[in-house]
Amino acid sequence: MRSTAAPQGPHRRRLLLAGASLFLLPGCASLATGGGGAPRKAGEWPVYGGDNRGTKYSPLDRIHRGNAKDLQVAWTWASPDDAVRAANPGLPLGEFQATPIMVDGKLFVSTAFCQVAAIDPVTGATLWLYDPGTWKHGAFTSKGLIHRGVAYWREGDDARVIIATGDNRLIALDAATGKPVPSFGQNGEVDLGTIGLSRPLARDPVDLFGTTSAPVICRDVVIVGQYIHDRPVIAEMPPGDVRGFDVRTGALKWTFRTVPRKGDYGYDTWEGGSADRNGNANVWAPFTADDETGLVYLPGTCPTNNFYGGDRPGDNLFGNALICVDASTGLRRWHFQFVHHDIWDYDLPCAPNLVDITVGGRRIKAVAQVTKSGFTFVFDRLTGQPVWPIEERPVPQSELKGERTSPTQPFPTLPRPFEHPGMSADLLVDFTPEIRAEAEAILANYKWGPIFTPFGTKPTIQTPAWVGGANWGGAGVDPETGVLFVPSTSSIASMALDETGKRVAGANETEEIAGSSRVVTGPRGLPLLKPPYGRITAIDLNTGEHLWMRPNGPGATDSPAMKPFNLGWVGSTGRTGPLVTKTLLFVGEGPHDPRYAKKVLRAYDKATGEIVAEIELPGHTLGPPMTYEKGGRQFIVCGMGFRRQPHRLVALALPA
After folding, report:
1. At 334, phi and psi to the nearest 5?
2. Which three-class secondary structure state does DSSP give residue 135?
3. Segments forming the whole domain that contains residue 118
């Protein structure tokens, strides 16, 4: 593991902590666990992840195993984006990835086009709508127009809805009217394209970066990360600065530089001064905060050029690191880098989960981070000390002349991986001896090996691939039991690079992040690997052990290729997020498996994984569902809408 002291070179890293920079925590009053400046009321969902801890948990119990089967659609809300798209057919497609919040008796949600709406939580009627016009600038991500949510803050009668838009504006809206708050920034807006950036841009940044996730508000500071294009768009890509703004005035309070400048901690992990000319390492995923301590946890992504690091020798802090900063000052308290010198696009795609656990009789305020690689890392969230040992193990090295990969990578000893890390012949499909032999013949066409096998000039298999493992829907956790619930997918892809790191075109190309890549398929129309291809894993964070694992749906089990083998559920590759309540776990199926994904929301027994109920939906779930109580009824709301599919919210409830 990486040393706690300032590095003496890129590979001096064998101590327990990873770059911890610990200060005494200042004395502070306990703030709301929901975030936003007001205590969380019973029945509310005031933050994107349920609370600032990112638990995706609600203590509501009106819906339980005895009546979940009776859930029915209570109302449907159509996104106003559909009307904008109909009037402007040239607009790029988007995805409705948002999860609403419910606070002070109203639902608030953002749309793929960054419109903001207030909604009646009982009827689904629109109360007000604000359109910042972000869509007029066109796509601000490689996937088109997407956005995940808003934040809420209240002090007395001053209640605000905060959105950070895809065209780089931080906007404060009056929660009662939807109108910009004049005292915030300039007429309700702060320019995220210029203010507080460590490396000013010489051009309009809208087609370079924007914000897609909901801000986090902690200690009256609005903290904002940003999405930056995965593929280099200009010669010097912008660095992934994280910034904190005063929630009342919009004034900049601090900037945390994820790509260090000269003199900053971590600068010498970018050898040859490469930090001066490289960017990304941004925080595009949602992040979490501990209101009691005032600490914020930032899940970082990979530096510029996801699959080649010849232009950035060294470990490249703070790329691919979980970074703990002080909400009031932006000062780093500790960090841990999950991938040194990333060339696999193994960025941290989701918010870490904060939960208190008991390990060996000792109570620990913990933070758990799930990953694309299938690993779960667990730390003391105050100190950065790993709860279970994390070992630096040797990994395969790059064969490309210009690339110098890290000789080791961190492996957690507990919990066990929730996906198979790396390629092994034992994973090959083997429904019959003949099929197994054909799978072996296919595998022989590729370079393959354990996790962290670098891409080479021969097509190289990566599993889980960059869209696999845990993704942006993240995990949920039950704070009463310390059990973590992780939806994940088992993806397998390959890519070849030339000696300069350029991607070599091949068959079955996809533009999903990687550019020229191949989806690896198996014999006779079958996948190359054995099922499941999507799963849910329950992990007891008190012991580090898996409680249960089950496929997340039937998937292609009834397809012509698989049906003869009577396999049962093989799992869906559709990505989505979980909802945890006092009584049940709810997980749907995402839209990324269009032939076989089911349009359902399933209720699971949290202790066993048994399916309690399956509720039909008009579409696939995309963002994590949420729940709230209003008028004596508990509602569960699912967002859906993938590209050309209708964008909407669907609320479920028991019959009135």
Report:
1. -165, 165
2. helix
3. 57-653
Of 197 and 519, which is predicted with more confidence? 197
Confidence bin at 16 (pLDDT 50/70/90): very low
**CB distance 391 to 1 below 8 Å:** yes
Express each pLDDT in 477-510 by its tens digit. Answer: 999 999 999 999 999 999 999 998 887 765 444 4
Position 195 pLDDT exceeds 60:
yes
Nearest partner of 554 among 642, 614, 622, judged by Cα: 614
Task: Identify the CA nearest to 329 among candidates 252, 238, 249, 227.
Answer: 252
Predicted pLDDT of residue 647: 96
Residue 14 lies in a domain: no
Helix H or strand E segment including 158: strand 158-164
Residue 422's closest CA among 389, 374, 486?
Answer: 374
d(CA 146, CA 211): 9
Instruction: Tell me if 41 is assigned to some domain.
Output: no
Q: Reading across the β-sheet that carries 169-174, which strands appear in turn?
A: 151-155, 158-164, 169-174, 189-191
Spatial contact of 65 and 591, defined as CB atoms under 8 Å apart: no
The tens digit of pLDDT for each residue in 344-358 reads 999 999 999 999 999
For the chain, how many structural domains are there in total? Answer: 1
Q: Dihedral of CA 58/64/69/70: which sign?
A: negative
The CATH number of the domain holding residue 196 is: 2.140.10.10
Asked whether residue 8 is assigned to any structural domain, the reply reads no
Residues 6+ apart with CB under 8 A from 553: 534, 569, 571, 572, 574, 589, 596, 597, 598, 600, 602
d(CA 626, CA 624): 7
For 399, counting Cβ atoms within 10 Å of its Cβ (0-12 exposed, 13-18 middle, 19+ buried), the class is: middle
Q: What gap in Å lies between CA 591 and CA 574, rounded to an integer?
A: 5
Question: For the chain, how long is the longest CA-to-CA vector?
Answer: 71
Do the Cβ atoms of 613 and 463 come closer than 8 Å?
no
Q: Answer yes or no: are the C-beta atoms of 512 and 495 closer than 8 Å.
A: no
DSSP letter assigned to residue 521? B
Residue whose pair of structure tokens reads 């690993």 in the numeric block? 375
Q: 292-312 in b/e burial notation, b at 16+ Cβ within 10 A?
A: bbbbbbbbbbbbbbbbbbbbb
In a domain, residue 567? The reply is yes
* Tokens (6 digits) for 145: 């127009």
Alpha-carbon distances of 485 from 284, 475, 479, 581, 587, rounded to whole Å: 22, 6, 12, 12, 10
Distance CA 223, CA 323 (A): 13
**Between β-strands 116-119 and 106-110, what pairing exists: parallel, antiparallel or unpaired?**
antiparallel
In the predicted model, what is the mean pLDDT of the chain?
91
Q: How far apart are CA 101 and CA 623, in angstroms?
A: 12
- Tell me the C-alpha distance between 141 and 127, whole Å: 29
Q: What's the CA gap between 625 and 616, in Å, rounded? A: 14
Q: Is the pTM of this model over 0.90?
A: yes
β-pairing, 158-164 with 151-155? Answer: antiparallel
**Beta carbons within 10 angstroms of residue 41's beta carbon:** 15
Under 8 Å between Cβ of 151 and 162: yes
